[in-house]
Amino acid sequence: MLKEKLFDSEGDPPVKQIRLLLGMSQLQFANLLGVYPSTVSRWEQGLSEPSFTAAGFKSLLTALEPHGVTLNDLPDKLGRAGQG
Fold first, then answer.
1. Number of helical (H) and strand (E) elements in the chain, helices listed first
2. How far apart are CA 76 and CA 71, in angstroms?
3. Residue 48, CB half-sphere, CA atoms under 13 Å: how many?
4. What DSSP state is assigned to residue 58?
5. By three-state DSSP, how is residue 45 classified?
6. How far apart are CA 7 and CA 35, in angstroms?
7. How far apart are alpha carbons 10 and 36 in whole angstroms?
8. How many CA atoms lie within 13 A of 55 on its CB side?
């Protein structure tokens, strides 16, 4: 149920929806995941598909936990290709 509620928008890719849910800037989100802010920007523009290290993914799951979002709530793809 949460997955549908969070990731059903046809506008923004899921990775951007997640960042906005967390209330983070692109810089803060990049720091959380251990990537460059320009990488987050490219993900959100659909210029590249999101990918990050296991440590970055664990950090993301930890940040999402207080929002009630679990691994099972996340779409299979976090970029534009994951929509639809």
1. 5, 0
2. 10
3. 8
4. H
5. helix
6. 23
7. 26
8. 5
Element (H, E) at 41: helix 37-45
Of 7, 19, 32, residue with least CA distance to 82: 7
Burial zone of 26 (CB within 10 Å; 0-12 exposed, 13-18 middle, 19+ buried): middle
Q: Which residue has the higher pLDDT, 29 or 75?
A: 29
Q: What is the pLDDT of residues 40-72, one digit of tens each?
A: 999 999 999 999 899 999 999 999 999 999 999
pTM (two decimals)? 0.84
Give me the domains of the chain, ranges plus CATH numbers. Answer: 2-78 (1.10.260)
